[in-house]
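Chapter review: from sequence to fold.
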Amino acid sequence: MIQEHLSKKVDWIYKIDKILNLIYYKLKTLKEFNVSLLASVIIPTYNRAKVLELCLNALLNQTADPTTYEIIVVDDGSTDNTPDLVKELSEKAHCSLVHLRQENSGRSRARNNGIRAAKGVYILLLDSDMIVRPEYIAAHISAHTRPGLIVNGAVVNTSNFDNPTKGPKHPIHLSRAVFATGNVSIKRTDLLYIGLFDEDFVEYGWEDLELGERLRLAGYKSVNSSAACSFHLEPRITFKDLPNLLKKERERGHNAVIFFQKNPSSNVRLMTLITPVYFFLDRITTLCNWSERPGTYKLLERLDRKGYRTLFEILFALIKSHAYADGIREKLKELNLKI
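The token string follows.
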């Protein structure tokens, strides 16, 4: 009885502390920031000036009043002409366009720096290779119909660089992610309260879904908006892209282990595929290490050159999956963990 009574008291103290913290962050936001600024669009980028220009031009042509939103480009140590591009566009922009620069240290830190610098009520997170329609910002804001919402905008993959927003007027949002930072919005105070992105995720992948899992466990609800869609510029994969894409998959495998280590739940285990079944299937589909043999890469190069796309994409998908599994194994070994 005494233990039960103490447990209830601790539970009530925790709830009161949570409410007081939320009130504190909301009052702090009202005091420090201009509440007439409804949205801050945050774009992390690294050496992507060409697609960033398309992204920013779309954001500078919005139906939303330009005095009600700002754009923050967080430059993660780019060595191309990103700073000059943002400066040039800011001189003709009707809204505030800010360039923040940091030493190359990953997307988590880049987004966190953008969120801390933001002045809008709502944070809109957008990748630098996303092109949006004129109603994008207004659609995100209008979708926040009640407190505690995460709004995920639909994402359409396209290789049409000349007219990227040509596509369905109301695309279907297929992702089941709670918080996918390619195109998502949430109140700034909610992000500050929950703790921002975990900067242990320095390499590629999972940092947004880890934050999404924390938001889900805290009771936030995810809704989809087809009106707030974005078009993901995704050029056709070629043999030359293979080394960089496989590097990303290994990094994603490393970060999957970090994610699972921080949240060792069955939900995260299934999400990251850190399961005996997945490793068994990986062994079966890559028997005799065919995916790592020089002959396999010669075959892929030939298939790509001769235009046998279906077979090229099937083999590439298997090799890509194996690189992810290898990344998981590498990190598990490094941390001396077992699944």
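Two observations follow directly from the output. The first strand starts at residue 39 and ends at 45. Confidence is low (pLDDT under 50) at residues 1-11, 24-34.
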